[in-house]
Amino acid sequence: MTQTLHIIGGGMAGSEAAWQAANMGITVVIHEMRPKVETFAHQTGDLAEMVCSNSFRSDDDEGNAVGLLHWEMRAAGGVIIAAADANALPAGSALAVDREAFAKTVTERVTAHPNISVSYEEVTSLPEGPCIIATGPLTSSALADAIAAEAGQESLAFFDAIAPIVHFDSIDMSRAWMQSRYDKGETEEERTAYLNCPMDKEQYEAFIDALLSADVTTFKPGETAGYFDGCLPIEVMAERGRETLRFGPMKPVGLTNPHQPDVKPHAVVQLRRDNALGTLYNIVGFQTKMKYGAQTTVFKTIPGLENARFARLGGIHRNTFINSPTLLDEQMRLKSKPNIRMAGQITGVEGYVESAAMGLLAGRLAAAEILGQDLPPVPVDTAMGALVSHITGGAEAKTFQPMNVNFGLFRPVEAKGGRRGRKDRYKMYTDRAKAAWSEWLGLPALDESSAAE
Ligand SMILES: Cc1cc2nc3c(=O)[nH]c(=O)nc-3n(C[C@H](O)[C@H](O)[C@H](O)COP(=O)(O)OP(=O)(O)OC[C@H]3O[C@@H](n4cnc5c(N)ncnc54)[C@H](O)[C@@H]3O)c2cc1C
């Protein structure tokens, strides 16, 4: 008899993980604390409740990395994406759903599965047998304590403080330059680890004015603002004094602009590499509560970032997540306790789609392990593979913050006949991903027309 797989948390990731494992013949028990124990954001006792927006974002599987993730989840028979499709509302190229009907559909399908049962209880300690922890951004404190005791207090965060992340190839290097402050570092790579964008006095003053007048979001009731100790939003720093940023993250010292070596910058915005591929850079110290529209307007006033494309914008939220790059192996298992896999937002991905996708992978990987099957590694050229590779190793562990799926996480495509436009490149990414994902799933090879469907 095979072992039972216990899944803690019946949200996006837990429901999908259960579905995938159950379809592979595994007996699954989901442990869900709602409705007995509530969170400040959930309203019902349904599985896979959407706590805020009703959108699964872009459904464009040829030009958008989230849309590609949708495609991969459909190809893998995902219950979350199927329930979304069944309850879709008109929303242009986005996949938006009737949230109540969506959660009811997931709940009905998952609870009706002959291999799945649901136990409505809070889990407060780490189980011994095969298990997936998918308790999400609002993991209960007793379980968070148990995870911290196993993983180390410093490996568990309760807020994300996300600085905006920019695609390297959208930065104007005729204005920006690579240099670490005071050229510190043993190697050339260390001495040029930062990307610098200079500002003169006028540009700095205009930037501060823009920060002070930008629209910001506020915390929800119950979502305490404990972030003030360690990581102030930049607009709050600016409120404390017009020079605060110039003496903080934007200090202009130890740097020489090679484009204008005789001009001392008044302030410098620094960006730091965010992934091993070097395709993404985060703006150092620029965590913010500004609304997304305001962020793009304000950040594009930074010299060198006028045409920046953002892989993600900044934010500060209540969010429990682990330092996956140090704690998880490539199979999403805790290195220190390999009977436990982690999935969903607690692994440091962000969003309904990414969380469900990581649940899908964890469910399949856990089931294969129980069955003694040897699955090949998840292909890195798929959206699933790019995301899981990022959280389990590609991301910088020291500055690890939750991540949405985006093409910056993918290995660059080699365009035959030179550089192509963005649309063509994205199509190349998605074609490559679809072929690799189909092969991994054991599906027939795609021809051109079926890939485009
Ligand atoms: C306030 C807020 C707003 C958000 N808005 C959006 C948005 O608009 N769009 C978006 O894409 N994402 C949003 N997110 C992120 C979103 O919640 C996640 O992306 C997604 O729901 C994560 O899926 P998950 O399965 O990892 O966690 P969840 O979907 O949260 O599921 C985790 C489940 O585990 C249960 N649980 C927790 N602790 C225990 C325990 N000890 N024992 C048993 N069960 C437990 C919870 O009750 C919950 O059902 C938001 C998050 C928050 C907190």
TrEMBL record:
One of its GO terms (cellular component) is cytosol. It is found in: Cytoplasm. GO terms for molecular function: flavin adenine dinucleotide binding; tRNA (uracil(54)-C5)-methyltransferase activity, 5,10-methylenetetrahydrofolate-dependent. It catalyses: uridine(54) in tRNA + (6R)-5,10-methylene-5,6,7,8-tetrahydrofolate + NADPH + H(+) = 5-methyluridine(54) in tRNA + (6S)-5,6,7,8-tetrahydrofolate + NADP(+); uridine(54) in tRNA + (6R)-5,10-methylene-5,6,7,8-tetrahydrofolate + NADH + H(+) = 5-methyluridine(54) in tRNA + (6S)-5,6,7,8-tetrahydrofolate + NAD(+). GO terms for biological process: tRNA methylation; tRNA wobble uridine modification. FAD binds at residues 9-14. Its cofactor is FAD. Coiled coil: none annotated. Its EC number is 2.1.1.74. Keywords: Cytoplasm, FAD, Flavoprotein, Methyltransferase, NAD, NADP, Transferase, tRNA processing. Residues 5-373 form the MnmG N-terminal domain. Its main location: cytoplasm. It comes from the Bacteria. Pfam families: GIDA (PF01134). Belongs to the MnmG family. TrmFO subfamily. PANTHER family: GLUCOSE INHIBITED DIVISION PROTEIN A, METHYLENETETRAHYDROFOLATE--TRNA-(URACIL-5-)-METHYLTRANSFERASE TRMFO. NCBIfam families: gid_trmFO (TIGR00137), PRK05335.1 (NF003739). Catalyzes the folate-dependent formation of 5-methyl-uridine at position 54 (M-5-U54) in all tRNAs. This is Methylenetetrahydrofolate--tRNA-(uracil-5-)-methyltransferase TrmFO.
